[in-house]
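Hey, I was hoping to borrow your eyes for a little while. A protein chain has come my way and I'm curious about its shape. Take your time with it, there's no hurry, and the full record follows here:
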Amino acid sequence: MPEETYGHINSAFCDGMATTVTAAHHFIWRHLYASIQAAQTPTSKLRFVTPEKESSMSTLWQEEQFKQICSRESLTEKAADIEKTIVVKEHERKRYDFDPTMFYENRFWNRRPDGIVINKYHRTLNILEFKRSSDRNKDFLRVKEDEANEQHGSIIEALRAAAPDWTFEQINFVAGRRGAVAEDDFYDKFEKLNVQAGKRDEILLAHVQRICEAYDTVMRSYY
């Protein structure tokens, strides 16, 4: 993408804007995550286990509730085989100081989903991921859904192999950088996450407002 287009400066691939763009991502997502958690139905058994910030898989599996799903050793074994089938990108080689003996395990345990929701009674775990995208293309939702699923595909696959008596699903929220959202898609996911019906409109409205505020902040920061 040509430098200094709106698309470029709104992405973390622009070195000069990376910190601001990353902060905008968290500004939007943490608010949506907290809103979903606060609007749970009275009978919901979901537990939102990453309320303040995302955590690496390694950090999560230090907690007892995750150890009850499967052991770290079992998950490491399944994950390493899956990670070996995923292309190693150049920035990953630099980040993890590529070593074939440990690289794949390290890459897996350093993966950081945006959010995790657990229902220990029904033995379900949802990985939540938030993506911002250029909203000029009508197909932006499908493109970002595919990207998010690919990003955490190894986590879902490894968990299913290590803990077959649990159900694992990834739920992605995708928003255009200028406020575009697919309402039906959001409402379907609100329902999956037990958000009270009467609060869904309010949450979506606040979410769009947050996106616009973040976009304005990024533009001001650039100029």
Q: What stands out?
A: The chain is about 50% helix and 10% strand. The two ends are 19 Å apart (CA to CA). The beta strands are 47-48, 115-119, 124-133, 167-176. The chain has a mean pLDDT of 87.
